[in-house]
Amino acid sequence: MNLIEEFNTYRSEMNEKIMASDNKVIKRFFNLDTNTYASGAIDVKSKEMIGLACSMVLRCDDCIKYHLGKCYEAGLDKKEIFEVFSIATVIGGSIVIPHLRRAVEYWELLEKENKTNV
């Protein structure tokens, strides 16, 4: 299993367990998150770029992977992703660089996976 599959499988399995707890607050928070990234006055592509930049500044590798996947699904290309990376690095400073490295690795895996699935 590759890094992308591992991340997505783990995330799905754990989200199922979390939702099975039937906790109203957690369910509402998850719903709020889902609705936040839905198309509205701002398109999905832009929202995912914002989510990615914020996740990098907050240094959340799981969030970075999630938003990279969503950015890929939204059709961002490598140049656009690196502009988002540059914004996050300028805002967050050098502490973002280790997360930038892992983000680049994950993006390359997304690109590679797509080429092998075509």
UniProtKB/TrEMBL annotation:
It holds the Pfam family CMD. InterPro entries: AhpD-like, CMD-like. Gene3D superfamilies: AhpD-like. It comes from the Bacteria. Residues 27-105 form the Carboxymuconolactone decarboxylase-like domain. GO terms for molecular function: peroxiredoxin activity. SUPFAM superfamilies: AhpD-like (SSF69118). PANTHER family: ALKYL HYDROPEROXIDE REDUCTASE AHPD, BLR3452 PROTEIN. This is Carboxymuconolactone decarboxylase-like domain-containing protein. It comes from Indibacter alkaliphilus (strain CCUG 57479 / KCTC 22604 / LW1).
